[in-house]
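Sequence in, structure out. Go.
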Amino acid sequence: MTDPIADLFTRIRNAIRSQHTTVVIPASSLKISVLKILKENGLIENFKASREKEDVQGKVTVLLKYDADGRPAITALQRISRPGCRVYLKQKDIQPVLNGLGISIISTSKGLMTGDRATQEGIGGEILANVY
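Output:
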């Protein structure tokens, strides 16, 4: 697998289209950081990482969020920077997603954060994705 973040988004997107309540993905620290941001912004209910053996990679179970009518909290996951074409933004170039209705996930020197937080802290970085 060359792009684990794209794999994470594809698994979540496919689970939402199939109306699944949970999805299981292979674990990594970058994926867990992305899931923390999604949880903090109310786009997923929860997630739980587990390892059965010490030499096994581990799995993360993601609990997807739906409203009372069955509509998902995530309508689109858009990968921006890919391994073949990296996209870096300065702090002044970070734009709100859907006029503030969505979030952008940015990898900075201080770790992963949303675009709003990166703008507040005055730092730029690699824009990984837009989620709304």
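Check: Helices lie at 4-17, 29-40, 115-121. DSSP finds three helices and eight strands in the chain.
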